[in-house]
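Customer ticket, subject: "Can you confirm the structure for GNAT family N-acetyltransferase?"

Message body: Hello, I'm evaluating your service for our small team and ran a test protein. I'd like someone to confirm that this is what the system normally returns, since I don't have a reference to compare against.
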Amino acid sequence: MNTIQLDWESPDEAHWRDRLAKCGRSTMFQSWSWGRALEATGQARVRRAYIQKNGRPVGLVQVFEETRLGLFTLGRILRGPLFFQSVLPEDRIAAMKEVRRAYPLGRMKRLSILPELPDGPAVVDLLRNAGFHKVLKPYETAWLDLSLPLSGIKAAMRQNFRNQLRRATDRATAGTLTVAEVEDPRPLLTRYDRHRKKVGYAAPSGMLLGALTDSDRLCLEARMGDDVIAGVLFVMHGQAATYQIGWTSPDGRAIHAHNLLLWRGIETLQQRGIRFLDLGGLDWDSAPGVAHFKAGIGGEAFTLPGTYV
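Agent reply: Thanks for trying us out. I re-ran your input and got the following:
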């Protein structure tokens, strides 16, 4: 009989990073850096465990804990668990059940999970049969395969996205638009926070993103003369990265600076050995314009079944 167990004692940063890289299409929320940033900013306590099958490590899971009303402990798994060895779908569900055992309602604890599983009847049935109940709708994103040649990535883009990229590239060639990597993300994070609060966008704060390990971020900005007109920030985790921030001024939007920033970001991520890019969610209800822009990049659509308790 196959048994799934959790090892809460062994995780350390070096081994976690190594195993996360072996997960391939890893998620930023399961990275060591993300957990540490949450703790550093006082937003959550973090618990980490390796998942073992018959005594052999096969996966990992990071849980974020919050205390409500001074009594109730809520544990959250975002886009996990992840696996660096091949396992059955039933093993993935068994791992989630093992984590849930650490959060019994009788002890004023509860666990919510947005599992990194493909949405569909088979997965939904497995979750339901394991006693999990859906509380939030499915989550949609898209993965871009950065192991492809740049020519193939560009060919898969929507035509209008490519046309806008070409026009922005022409401006860069002419010297009227410049794109460069910046080491200090704080100016971009300030602009991002201002815009996020203005439109009521529910997303990680600039304070949290600023607390990430420097080497896990890639920040690019576009300028016209001395004026910053657009910026992007990617979070790197193992062999994958997430497109997390995109900010554009009216001037930047008018000349499609963001298209060029994303393209330069893709080139840089490839050079750093990143093989997969998560486009950071496609919310067609609350942010249809952003979702349309991201969809223009191309990629493989991927829908998670939603949040369960």
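A couple of notes from the result: The CA atoms of residues 156 and 202 lie 30 Å apart. The two ends are 27 Å apart (CA to CA). Feel free to reply with more questions.
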